[in-house]
Specification:
alpha/beta; Isoleucyl-tRNA Synthetase, Domain 1; 7-stranded parallel beta sheet; 4-stranded antiparallel beta sheet; 46% helix; binds zinc ion
Length: 502
């Protein structure tokens, strides 16, 4: 039990929320729901990145002010997360006063430490990345390696953060904090970037007015990364004399995509070192959800709107798919056929079918009243194994492993029913024993599936006649064998997951 603080990247409001945003946000939601079950005091933060050249350009194109443009798009993210049952505790927008205060405070501290200095920069710049590139970083034809589009030549006077001074300190820190970045192969990528040599990076622009002015030189506004990264501190009161950010900080996990390792695992800890702020406890780096093998992007036209998929498979069908189908850290390949196949196999045929057959047999053979489970049930070991596997999986920020372990109990319970065929037997002690075991397994399944499919888990909990809210349950008590008391009315209800024709 303790505090548990998790963040998603803040999402750039130059486009509507897409599958990639939804993926990371659902992973964070499931992880933090698990930690709430553990009794941790959870803060789950997401939000929107609202400054920078792209927003200025998008606003100009839409014939509106940047603030009006952001005010129009940011709620689309908030609505999407409500629709996807995301239980974030806070939603930060970088145009908020609390964020401006935090950015000014962090900049001033780094400036006072002597790590921010004025210099002239000229180089190749990708507007979409908001990043300078050296020639050897560009593709052979001179295109941006991320966007595969031409870069511009920029020259301007900027303030620079002296990242080059932090190589040894960063390497020492990571050596002293093994396992801070998961999965391990992503940690190796970050260390490779640091060992490869660090270049100072620009923290300001004079060519742009849509941003936060530097506290010591208002001709410059803060460059997008210095601005954006600081949101993780703004939300916990950094820069506000009335608040103590160390109540929540350091963060337990920054959830990030593999494309922003450099900014989160190299720039950010160096900025914090300079400012005298404690470093994060962890980073969990996810891969991309590819669509037909390509990163989803507005420019490639393969953007999948997650809310369209919810109309087909339901909120929980979609959440389960993105959590179970991709090993967090690696790339996943999204396909509609894969979504429907997994929905039918794991949700309709396994979880949904288990609830339906248990309720049907209890109605027919037990007068609709659930018998109590046996203390020495053959399913008790399967339940203990599922709990252990789920715990290991969530601890490692590996939702797919946690859910594989959880589904192990669902499969074991279905197998237990098929082996005993209570639907063929006469009512009596034997049927009662088998059904009591299955009901207890379903009760534990409701708790274990709550992080991934909260709406469905709550329905199972209710249909079993359990009292109290499911999200008030606490692990380990709530997943110890024998918690189903027996004697409740079991409700069949509609199918949890109607099969989808594929
Ligand atoms: Zn680019």
């Amino acid at each position: 039990m303790g505090s548990f603080y998790v963040t998603t990247p803040i999402y750039y409001v130059n486009a509507e929320p897409h599958l990639g945003h939804a993926y990371t946000t659902i992973v964070g939601d499931a992880l933090t729901r698990w930690h709430r079950l553990l009794g941790d005091d959870v803060t789950y933060l997401t939000g929107t990145d609202e400054h920078g050249l792209k927003i200025r350009q998008a606003a100009d194109a839409a014939g509106t002010t940047p603030q009006e443009f952001c005010d129009r798009i940011a709620p689309a993210f908030q609505r999407a997360w409500e629709r996807l049952d995301i239980a974030n505790d806070d939603f930060i927008r970088t145009t908020e006063p609390r964020h401006h205060a935090a950015v000014r405070e962090l900049l001033q501290r780094c400036y006072d430490a002597g790590d921010i200095e004025l210099d002239t920069y000229s180089g190749k710049y990708c507007v979409a990345c908001e990043e300078y590139y050296t020639d050897d970083e560009l593709l052979d034809d001179g295109l941006c390696p991320i966007h595969k589009r031409p870069v511009d030549h920029f020259e301007e006077e900027n303030y620079f953060f002296r990242l080059s001074r932090f190589q040894d300190r960063l390497l020492d820190w990571y050596a002293a904090h093994p396992g801070a970045i998961v999965p391990e192969f992503r940690a190796n990528e970050a260390l490779g970037l640091i060992r490869g040599g660090l270049r100072d990076f620009s923290v300001s622009r004079t060519s742009l007015d849509w941003g936060i002015p530097l506290p010591w030189d208002s001709d410059h506004v803060a460059y997008v990364w210095f601005d954006a990264l600081t949101n993780y501190l703004s939300a916990v009161g950094f820069g506000d004399p009335a608040q103590d950010h160390t109540q929540r900080w350091p963060v337990d996990y920054h959830l990030i995509g593999k494309d922003i390792i450099r900014h989160h695992c190299v720039y950010w800890p160096a900025m914090l070192m300079s400012a005298g702020v404690e470093l994060p406890k962890g980073w969990a780096v996810g891969g991309w959800l590819l669509v037909d093998g390509e990163k989803m992007a507005k420019s490639t036209g393969n953007v999948v709107n997650p809310l369209d998929l919810v109309d087909t498979v339901g909120v929980d069908g979609f959440r389960y798919y993105v959590l179970a189908d991709t090993t967090y850290g690696s790339d996943g390949d999204f396909s509609y056929d894969g979504l429907v196949a997994r929905y039918n196999a794991d949700l309709a045929n396994n979880l949904g079918n288990l609830m339906a057959r248990v309720a049907t047999v209890v109605a027919k053979k037990c007068d609709g009243v659930g018998p109590a489970p046996r203390a020495d049930s053959p399913l008790a070991d399967a339940a203990a194994a599922a709990v252990a596997g789920a715990t290991t999986g969530w601890d490692a920020v590996s939702p797919s492993r946690a859910l594989e372990a959880t589904w192990g109990l669902i499969r074991a319970t279905n197998a237990h029913l098929e082996a005993n065929e209570p639907w063929k037997a006469d009512p009596g002690a034997e049927v009662d024993a088998v059904m009591g075991d299955a009901l207890e397994a379903l009760r534990i399944i409701a708790v274990l599936t709550h992080p991934a499919v909260p709406g469905t888990a709550a329905q199972i909990w209710e249909r079993l006649g359990m009292t109290g809210a499911l999200d008030d349950q606490r692990i380990p008590d709530a997943v110890s064998w024998g918690g189903y008391p027996g004697g409740t009315d079991i409700v069949k209800g509609d199918p949890l997951f109607p099969r989808i024709a594929s």
